[in-house]
Design a protein that fits this description.
Length: 184
């Protein structure tokens, strides 16, 4: 021995290899399962289901509440066809008046609507729909033509009355009328 330290034997690590390569591979945990979800997701799902249920119930109730409107509009279509066939303005005014009264009685109590005639009736129609046309010549046909002798009128005037009736059926509101209803 000559006084020098012995040289370590050449090993694979000593020759520039990465010592981390000799370690065992990491053991990874199982992936996080999607079920059961965290409590926040349960609450969110419950809120969404509640919201969807509330919207469906509201839509069904609204559809049922407006069934009388759909029926009245069907009857108005029949009245319009009859007017196109015979052109009788007095009969048109009478039929529109009857339809408006029947429709109003579906919403408001009989005591508040049934006895309304002439100007009071037209005021009620205007107030309950926000349509001022009931005070115009078109609206006045509802009162004037009921007692006039039968006549043929220009189709435009009759069409305006049909349009006004259709608008009232579509737009009348308890809030606008400021009266109680059968649905309270």
């Amino acid at each position: 021995m000559n006084g020098t330290a012995p040289m370590p034997s050449a090993s694979p690590m000593a020759q520039g290899a990465n010592p981390l390569d000799a370690l065992e591979p990491n053991i990874l945990p199982e992936p996080i399962s999607w079920f059961p979800p965290a409590p926040g997701w349960w609450i969110l799902a419950l809120l969404i289901i509640t919201l969807i249920t509330a919207v469906v119930i509201w839509l069904v109730q609204r559809h049922r509440r407006n069934a009388y409107r759909r029926e009245a509009l069907k009857q108005l279509d029949q009245i319009a066809q009859s007017f196109q066939f015979d052109g009788d303005a007095r009969q048109l005014a009478k039929n529109c008046n009857l339809l408006l009264k029947a429709t109003a009685l579906q919403v408001w109590p009989r005591e508040q609507v049934a006895n309304l005639v002439d100007k009071d009736w037209l005021d009620f129609l205007a107030r309950s729909s926000g349509l001022n046309d009931f005070q115009s010549e078109t609206g006045q046909q509802l009162g004037a033509n009921l007692y006039a002798k039968p006549q043929t009128e220009q189709a435009g005037s009759g069409e305006q009355l049909i349009t006004l009736t259709r608008q009232w059926i579509s737009k009348h509101s308890l809030k606008k009328a400021g009266m109680g209803s059968n649905h309270d």
